[in-house]
Amino acid sequence: MFSLYGKITRAIITICIFTGVILSNCAWGTALPPEVMSSLKEVKILEITKENLNVIWDLRPTQYPDSADVVDLKVVYKDISNEHTMVLQEWVKRGKGIILYSPNVKRFFPDITTKFYNGLGTIAQSVEDSHPVVTGVKEVCFEQSSYSAIETEFQSLCIPILKIKDEKIIAIACSYGRGRVIVFTNGKVKSENKSWKYSPLMTTEDYDNGRFKINVEQWLAGAPVPGVSATSRMKRDTIFLKNGDILSGDILNERFTVVSPCGTLIFCISDLAQIIFEEVKEQRPTDIARVILRIGDRVSGVVQEEKIDIMLLSGTETSIDKDKIAHITFELR
């Protein structure tokens, strides 16, 4: 047993390392005071590569699921099996964190697509006020240019956090069950020996790399992000209308009732991640909605609420007819 646990421990990267790059704690644009630094959670990050894939089995509930807070998955799609993927997915859903890259993101999010570009530059800007991980962060600098961007429309649990040339998105933060995911497009593989290579962050006081590193690690580990109060919500509930309008605020409906083939189901708003009303498959009735729960389960059925009440960010309360809504995303409560 001790040798098995030691195998995991040796693979752990301590809080001083972020995505495989040692960063100096004395160089960041928005420094945190010593009392804040001393209160940060010490995050245990398990780096998984092609050489140590079998440590994934140790994350099963009957083994050592708490041996790490965050997994840094430096493995390409074809080198990780479906069985390995299922173990990681369940581990994250139970409240853990994982860092993904372009070559493996589809193991968790099949609908996310990326596009190759001929160099996008090295300096990325934060998507302002989009997410706790960009608190105190304006610009992040990479040593190598990004060559791909995420093309997916972000009307889901994934929120853009870093953008680069021409507003192209190169990093997103996502909910996954009770867990959390950060996706970077900087990962790539050397063709000659299949070893992992990625664009490391530079350590420079002219950019906010150090603060960004801290924010990402703390958020993935489920710890408070410095500068973000427990009650603050950086992204609100969002209603996307069929005419293209978008409304953000606090949805006031406390429960949603769904009549599905398996019966009538009642969900608290805290259970919900998305409700998708606009169905693209013609063979389905137009009143059938897809309800996506925060734990990852999905249910199809008819939502019984005819109006959705929302308190807008301006302080105005309004009601939206259900038949005018394409879909809704719900903030974590």
Short description:
By secondary structure, the protein is mainly beta. The chain is built from 4 helices and 25 strands.
Secondary structure elements and their pairing?
Elements: H1 2-11, E1 12-13, E2 17-18, E3 21-22, H2 34-39, E4 45-48, E5 70-73, H3 82-93, E6 97-101, E7 114-116, E8 123-126, E9 139-141, E10 148-150, E11 158-164, E12 168-176, E13 179-184, E14 188-189, E15 196-197, H4 209-220, E16 237-241, E17 246-251, E18 255-260, E19 263-268, E20 272-276, E21 289-293, E22 298-303, E23 307-312, E24 317-321, E25 325-329
Parallel strand pairs: 4-5, 5-6, 6-13
Antiparallel strand pairs: 1-4, 2-3, 7-10, 8-9, 8-11, 11-12, 12-13, 14-15, 16-17, 16-25, 17-23, 18-19, 18-22, 20-21, 20-25, 21-22, 23-24
What does this structure look like?
With 333 residues, the protein is mostly beta strands. The protein folds into two domains: 2-220, Rossmann fold, CATH 3.40.50; 237-329, no CATH class. The protein is built from four helices and 25 strands. β5 (70-73), α3 and β6 (97-101) form a beta-alpha-beta unit. The protein is globular. The model is unreliable at 1-29 and 189-197 (pLDDT under 50).
What is the average per-residue confidence, as pLDDT, rounded to a whole number?
Answer: 79
Please report the first level of CATH classification, the CATH class of the largest domain: Alpha Beta
| Strand order, sheet with most strands | 19-18-22-21-20-25-16-17-23-24
Q: Main beta sheet, described?
A: 10 strands, antiparallel
How far is it from the N-terminal to the C-terminal residue, by CA?
A: 39 Å
At the fold tier of CATH, the topology name of the largest domain is Rossmann fold
- Any idea what the radius of gyration is? 21 Å
